[in-house]
Design goal:
Helix 21 links the parallel strand 13 and strand 14. This protein has about 575 residues and is α/β, with parallel strands linked by helices. Among the domains are: about 150 residues, no CATH class; about 50 residues, no CATH class; about 180 residues, von Willebrand factor, type A domain (Rossmann fold), CATH 3.40.50.410. The longest helix is centred in the first third of the chain and has 20 residues. A 6-stranded mixed beta sheet has the order 11-10-9-12-13-14, with helices on both faces. The protein is elongated and about 125 Å long. About 40% of the residues are buried. It contains 22 helices and 14 strands.
């Protein structure tokens, strides 16, 4: 039966494409049995659009069980709508989920279900009203079986959108549910061309119904939705920005309800998430996992800080090696007594005359010089030491601006071909570092996003060993607070003073050193400056200024490098 159904559905595929326009182009869908669909990533529903490779996946066994065998165009056109209209791509899918989560405090586990319901509403309304497809017929079949208040509200919303008589898709509802469905229908029409802006309002409208939905009911409802899916290792750009907008219940939204101001007049200074604000790392990770992206805590943090750092990348310093003059032969000349004997060209002298008469037959080769080819620029390597003691935030939980500043510098260095050594430090034995100077971006970010939260003891042995024999030009950057004094006032395990180790390292590095410190008083700044002669000390009074420093760092270091 599945093979025959697949053949009939495949014949209807061009018609489903035309529902979204003559130039819509999506490659043929995967027609699967339930077992094949599971292997393709379709679990808990009868159809999905896979955003990562833009593929429609259909479980024809499940579709037939739900009575949808004769509605091939409707089902397939709906899935194409996830590509054309909502959510269209990975970034918008993530933003949709983020907005629904924000509108569902303590019920965030249902955000994916609500997002699916909302996306289906937008697509189905377009297909039913503008394309003449029988989407109501789809829901007549999906309306059978167990119900709950959320599903009843949702079906009533379709009845209102499509002017169907009450009771067509669901039994008559109470006045409150009918009022919510009226608001939901209005929201779908108002935000049809700006669907992301309406996502939070729809989720807020669903909130009171979700309180009565347990995990089993949520699973059954998901089976009745056609959803989009991502791969477990998907990259989702733009997710760190908190662009959720002003989320409010549709009853309080003047665009949806003409009497919204009478219900709740707008308050002065009402907080709205504005451009330039960002999510915390823990929330970023929660959204990725809710999307179905399977990544470790380390990779989540690395993705977050890479995305935050990328807009701030700077021109990292490079040096040009001095041009070396090359010898240029210019023929033979007379050698006379008084000139260095080793300059005599004896072969040329013998060929000139068998009799050697100094100053008469002796000759020497004459050489001039010419400028050699200009050498390629040599990037200055970066040696980065980031404080991870108890006075610092955990970068995997809340945004750490010292981690962000370190990421800006490190990624800028890697971009020009430099190598980076990153060292995270806290207590005496708490040191995490890359395997020397590396070109591996992921390895550097894994170090920068780690966390110890212990005592404060600068890793003098790392600084000492790094510059024991190093000859490449390197810039040293230490990001810390007043705990940086352990780099100067402590001694290493061999009894050598930290001040000597730091001074020797600075001289051997050859491209300068920077101390980027969060210091709260002028007296503390003067004290540290007195302990660290030769180092560029830059004081910040709050951590966000670290990012401003990173942006300004390049010009200072660039000028000093001789460019």
């Amino acid at each position: 039966m599945t093979a025959d159904l697949a053949a009939r559905w495949r014949q209807r595929w061009p018609e489903a494409l035309r529902a979204w326009g003559r130039f819509t182009n999506v490659h043929e869908p995967l027609m699967c049995t339930t077992e094949e669909a599971r292997k393709a990533g379709l679990i808990g529903s009868f159809a999905m659009f896979r955003l990562t490779d833009r593929t429609v996946v259909l479980d024809l066994e499940a579709a037939a069980d739900l009575g949808l065998g004769e509605l091939a165009v409707e089902v397939m056109a709906h899935e194409i709508g996830h590509h054309v209209l909502c959510p269209a791509d990975l970034s918008d899918n993530a933003r949709l989920l983020a907005r629904t989560r924000r509108a569902l405090p303590n019920l965030e586990q249902h955000a994916r279900l609500v997002g699916n319901l909302y996306a289906d509403l937008l697509i189905n309304d377009r297909l039913q009203r503008s394309r003449g497809l029988d989407m109501a017929g789809v829901y007549r079949r999906l309306a059978t079986g167990p119900s709950n208040p959320l599903w009843t509200f949702y079906l009533r919303l379709y009845e209102i959108l499509w002017a169907l008589p009450s009771g067509t898709l669901t039994p008559p509802v109470d006045q409150d549910t009918d009022g919510d469905a009226q608001l939901g229908a209005r929201l779908v029409r108002v935000y049809a061309a700006d669907w992301l802006a309406g996502a939070g309002g729809f989720a807020a409208l669903c909130y009171r119904y979700l309180a009565e939905v347990d995990d089993g009911e949520a699973t059954r409802l998901l089976r009745r939705t056609c959803h989009s899916a991502v791969a477990p290792d998907s990259q989702v750009p733009g997710l760190s920005a908190a662009d959720d907008g002003d989320i409010r219940h549709p009853a309080l939204d003047p665009r949806v309800n003409d009497f919204a101001d009478a219900i709740a007049p707008p308050e002065e200074g009402e907080p709205v998430v504005s451009e330039g604000q960002y999510r915390e790392p823990f929330e970023y990770g929660q959204i990725l996992r809710a999307l179905g992206v399977e990544v470790s805590e380390e990779d989540i943090a690395a993705r977050y800080y890479r995305e935050r750092a990328t807009p701030h990348l700077v021109r990292f310093p490079v040096r040009r090696r001095p041009v070396v003059a090359e010898p240029l032969p210019e023929g033979l000349g007379l050698w006379d007594v008084g000139e260095p004997l080793e300059r005599v060209d004896w072969l040329a002298t013998a060929l000139r005359s068998p009799v050697v008469l100094p100053g008469v037959t002796t000759v020497q080769r004459l050489e001039g010089t010419m400028d050699g080819a200009e050498s390629a620029p040599e990037p200055v390597d970066l040696d980065l030491y980031v404080d991870s003691s108890g006075s610092m935030p955990d970068p995997r939980v809340q945004v750490s601006y010292l981690t962000l500043a370190g990421a800006v510098l490190a990624l800028s260095a890697l971009r020009v071909g430099a190598r980076v050594q990153a060292t995270l430090w806290s207590g005496t034995t708490q040191v995490l570092r890359t395997d020397g100077f590396v070109r591996d971006e992921q390895a550097v970010l894994r170090v920068l996003t780690g966390f110890f939260g212990g005592g404060t003891a600068f890793p003098l042995h790392v600084l000492r060993d790094t510059y024991a024999e190093r000859t490449r030009p390197t810039h040293i950057v230490v990001i810390s607070d007043n705990g940086v004094d352990t780099m100067i006032e402590a001694v290493d395990e061999e009894g050598r003073p930290g001040a000597d180790i730091a001074a020797r390292a600075l001289a051997a590095a050859g491209a300068g050193g920077t101390l980027l410190l969060n210091l709260w008083s002028d007296a503390e700044q003067s004290r540290i400056a007195g302990l660290t002669p030769g180092w560029d000390l830059h004081r910040v009074t709050d951590w966000p200024q670290l990012v401003d420093f990173a942006a300004a760092f390049s010009k200072r270091a660039y000028d000093r490098s001789g460019r």
